[in-house]
Design goal:
alpha+beta, Chloramphenicol Acetyltransferase, 6-stranded mixed beta sheet, 5-stranded mixed beta sheet, 18 strands, disordered N terminus, Alcohol_O-acetyltransferase, N-acetyltransferase activity
C-alpha cells in the first residue's frame, strides 16, 4: 500500500500504530501532553574538546546520530492520518538532519547548568512540527560552552515514537557510535551534507506489545474495570482517588523540579533498600506516600492511589531475525504499562499519626516512621515483582484493545475524577562508560581503539515528562548513571497542582533520601 506525499515521492505504510502509540498520540493531539526529555552529559575526548575542533566535533556527533538512526527504525519513520482513528507509521525516503540536530553555543561567562535546566524545561512544553509535514517526532539539542570538556545532549521526543527505556537505549547506542567512529572518518552511505537518504527497503519496525504477547483478561477483572468506567459519579465512593486535584486542561504549562544524589549516597540508599527487601522504585513510592500524607490532611485525602510504570521488555520474545537492534531489550519502541497501587485509609491514618504536626518544619523521619516506610516500600516492590511474574495478564493494555476512539476516550477521561495522586517511573541505570562487550562477544580492545583517555563517556543523566493532564497529579522520574549517581525529578500541570505543594513534596523527598544516605 502506498500513499503520495506532498513533495511528490511515494512512501509505504508500514503498520498501524500500536495501542500505547495511539493512546500517547491522542493525548498529544488534545494537548494533554507535549514532550519527554532525556538529557545526558557527555565527557568529550581531548582531541575534540578545543574550539579549533568544533567542526570535527559536530561531524562526529552527526555521524554517530546517523549510525544510531540506522540501528533503530523508529527514528526513521513518521505518521500518516494522525488525527484519524487508525493512524499509521510510514516509511520516509530521507531525513533533513538540521531538523533533528541543533547546537546551542554559550559564552564563557554564561551559567552552563542554568542554561541546561532552562532548555530542558522549555523543551518539555514545546510542540513538535505539524504532523502532516511527515518527519519523525524526535530531536537532539547539544549545549556547548567554549573549551569545556563536556557537552549536554538533550533528546526530546513525542511519546508515540518510543518510551523512556527506548530513550535510554538511544543514548547508550549513541555513546557506542561515538566511540566506534574512526578519528576523522565521517563518510556514511546515504549521507549528503545534512540530508540522510534512507534505505529503499522498508524498515523492520518493533512489533507492538499487544501483537507480541497475549493479553488475557479474567472475567472478574474485566467486570471491575467496566464498572469503574461506567458507574455514575454519585456512586463513586472510592476515597483513594485524587479528588483533591480536579483535572484541568488549560492553560497548559509544566512545572518541573529536579535534584541529584551523588554516587556514595546512592550506594548507601541501595544498600538500605536491599536490607529492607525493596528497590529505589519501591522507596520512591513510599516516600511519596509520606510526603502527600504530610501535606494533605485527612478531610482532603483519606487514602491514596499511585501508579508505577512497568517496562515489559524482559517479557518479550527474542528480536526477529535481521532486526538491527539485535536484542529485544535494546528495542527503541513502546513497551510500558502501568501498575496501580492503593494505600487504604487505615495505613494513611497511621502514617499521619506519626508525622510531625507542622509539615513545614522539614523534620527528618523518626525511627518509627522509617519502619513504616520500609514496610510500605517492600510491599510496593512485592506488587511489582508479582506483576512481572504474571506478565500481561489482567493488564490495562489488554483492556485498551477494546477502545475504538482514543481521542474521545481521553476527552472523557479529562471529565472524570483523577485516579492517581502520584506516579513513579524509573528508567533504571544507564551505562555511561561504553564497553565493546555490550552487543558483541569481544572482550579486549582492538589495537586501533582509542585508550580510555580518548573515549567518550556519560557522567550524568536527567529524565523528565511534560505534564500529562488526565494522569497523576505529580509524576516522579528517576534515572541513574552507573557509578555516577542519580537524578530524581517531578512534573505536574501548573493549572491543577499548587506549585508550593509540589516544591514541598520534592523538598521532603530530597531531605529524606539524604537522611537515609547518612544513616547507612
Amino acid at each position: 500500500m502506498t500513499n503520495r506525499l506532498s513533495h511528490g515521492t511515494e512512501t509505504m505504510v508500514l503498520r498501524k500504530l500500536g495501542i500505547n502509540e495511539t493512546y500517547q498520540l491522542a493525548m498529544y493531539l488534545l494537548d494533554q501532553y507535549r514532550g519527554t526529555t532525556l538529557s545526558c552529559r557527555y565527557a568529550i575526548p581531548p582531541r575534540l574538546a578545543s574550539i579549533e575542533s568544533r567542526t570535527q566535533l559536530e561531524e562526529a556527533v552527526k555521524v554517530a546520530v546517523v549510525d544510531t538512526i540506522m540501528r533503530h527504525p523508529m527514528l526513521q519513520v513518521s505518521m500518516m492520518d494522525a488525527t484519524s482513528k487508525t493512524p499509521s507509521w510510514i516509511q520516509l525516503q530521507s531525513l533533513d538532519l538540521t531538523q533533528h540536530i541543533k547546537w546551542l553555543y554559550i559564552g564563557e561567562h554564561d551559567d552552563f547548568e542554568q542554561t541546561v535546566q532552562e532548555t530542558f524545561r522549555v523543551q518539555l512544553d514545546d510542540r513538535f512540527p505539524d504532523l502532516s509535514i511527515k518527519q519523525p517526532g524526535w530531536k537532539i539539542t547539544v549545549i556547548r560552552q567554549g573549551n569545556a570538556p563536556i557537552m549536554e545532549v538533550l533528546l526530546t521526543w513525542n511519546h508515540p515514537q518510543f518510551d523512556g527505556a527506548g530513550a535510554k537505549v538511544f543514548h547508550e547506542d549513541f555513546l557506542e557510535m561515538l566511540n566506534n567512529a574512526e578519528n576523522g572518518a565521517y563518510e556514511r552511505t546515504g549521507l549528503d551534507g545534512n540530508i540522510l537518504r534512507l534505505p529503499q527497503a522498508p524498515p523492520l519496525l518493533p512489533t507492538p506489545l499487544e501483537s507480541l504477547k497475549s493479553l488475557p483478561l479474567d472475567l472478574k477483572y474485566l467486570a471491575k474495570v467496566f464498572w469503574e468506567e461506567t458507574r455514575p459519579r454519585f456512586l463513586n465512593r472510592d476515597v483513594s482517588q485524587a479528588a483533591w486535584c480536579p483535572i484541568r486542561s488549560s492553560p497548559y504549562k509544566t512545572q518541573y523540579q529536579v535534584f541529584s544524589i551523588d554516587n556514595p549516597s546512592l550506594l548507601a540508599i541501595l544498600a538500605l533498600c536491599r536490607q529492607n527487601k525493596t528497590t529505589i522504585t519501591g522507596l520512591l513510592n513510599g516516600l511519596a506516600l509520606f510526603a502527600f500524607s504530610s501535606h494533605l490532611d485527612n478531610t482532603v485525602a483519606p487514602a491514596f492511589q499511585s501508579s508505577t510504570i512497568m517496562d515489559h521488555r524482559r517479557n518479550l520474545p527474542p528480536a526477529p531475525p535481521g532486526a538491527p537492534w539485535v536484542r529485544c531489550d535494546r528495542a527503541v519502541g513502546n513497551y510500558v504499562t502501568q501498575l496501580p497501587h492503593r494505600f487504604d485509609t487505615e495505613l494513611v491514618a497511621r502514617i499521619r499519626s506519626k508525622l510531625p504536626a507542622d509539615p513545614t518544619e522539614g523534620k527528618d523521619l523518626s525511627a518509627d516512621l522509617q519502619r513504616e516506610l520500609w514496610a510500605v516500600s517492600a510491599q510496593n516492590r512485592l506488587e511489582i515483582v508479582r506483576k512481572l511474574e504474571t506478565g500481561l495478564r489482567n493488564d490495562l493494555v489488554g483492556v485498551f484493545k477494546w477502545v475504538t476512539d482514543w481521542q474521545q476516550t481521553m476527552k472523557d477521561m479529562a471529565k472524570k475524577t483523577r485516579q492517581f495522586s502520584w506516579l513513579v517511573t524509573n528508567i533504571g541505570v544507564l551505562d555511561g562508560n561504553y564497553t565493546s562487550t555490550r552487543l558483541s562477544n569481544t572482550t579486549t580492545r582492538s589495537p586501533t581503539e582509542p585508550d580510555d583517555g580518548q573515549r567518550w563517556s556519560i557522567d550524568r543523566a536527567q529524565f523528565g515528562l511534560s505534564a500529562e493532564i488526565p494522569a497523576a497529579a505529580i509524576e516522579f522520574d528517576a534515572i541513574s548513571v552507573a557509578g555516577r549517581g542519580m537524578c530524581v525529578s517531578a512534573n505536574w500541570p501548573d493549572c491543577a497542582v499548587d506549585a508550593m505543594l509540589g516544591e514541598r513534596i520534592m523538598a521532603d523527598l530530597e531531605r529524606w533520601l539524604a537522611q537515609l544516605a547518612r544513616q547507612s
